[in-house]
Amino acid sequence: MRIFLEQMLNGLTIGSFYALIALGYSMVYGVMKLINFAHGDLFTLGSYLGFTLLVWGNAYVTSHVGLAGGMIAAMLIAAIGIGTAGIIVERIAYRPIYPAGRLPAVVSALGVSIFLENIIMVLWGPRYQAYPVNVVPTLRFEIGGIHITLLQIVILIFSFILLAILYYIVQKTTFGAAIRASALDRDTAALMGININTIIFFVFALGPALGGTAGVMVGMYYRQISFTMGWNYGLKAFTATILGGIGNIPGAMVGGLLLGIFEMLGSAYISTAYKDVFVFLILILVLIFRPRGLLGEKVAEKV
Known about the structure:
The chain is built from eleven helices and four strands. The protein is mainly alpha-helical. It has a two-stranded antiparallel ribbon. Strands 2-3 form a two-stranded antiparallel ribbon. It is a multi-pass membrane protein.
């Protein structure tokens, strides 16, 4: 039972990364019906921005705001930087070709993904980069026989705060109602007076910003990052989006957390060598038995 609970905790930690990244896929698809294949590389870029701040500015930052302040500053810089990058990508790579249909936009997204991956490699080099070990003290606690680290506590707290804030915005505010209306039927929402360009701006800024924040958390958790990691995390987050229901924001949250739990339980009780296989197996099973996801894709009812 102790191993099971610890793996559940590890799964929630990993799943929180997937959930934050999956939200970017889900929001963009919900409004634009577009799979933003560049999203995984924006996540990677956020991880490298956080790394740059914590390594190059480590002494200055920690001397003024402490370790906790340095960690928050890294996530904030990554969120702002990647949110801005997401807006630039939408304006340059997607907006000019919206009238051409979905397929050209998909090709453009793949091109942006390749471009970002190579830019990261050129700027930071092809080797793995190591996050500083003193960002969060390596403290370990034992609660009821279950081991948990301070870093896991910090990651879970920050992740669930971000997820809760986004859920509140989307489900409980007027602007969130406009987002949901645009996801159901963009043309009708525009006729009702909703500024679609504002909604597009929001989803292309907030989705990558959450992904950039997750990138910093991944760097702190695993201590090393690679310019190619966007493909792996992006694919798993996309699987989480499908698992929860693509275009469904609460579904992306649930799907990400569940995927992390399934991956860790599979690693613990079957084999770590096949943990990525579990992800694709889940994707295949969901597509076969429940193609709209666990919570269902949001679609407009025609009456």
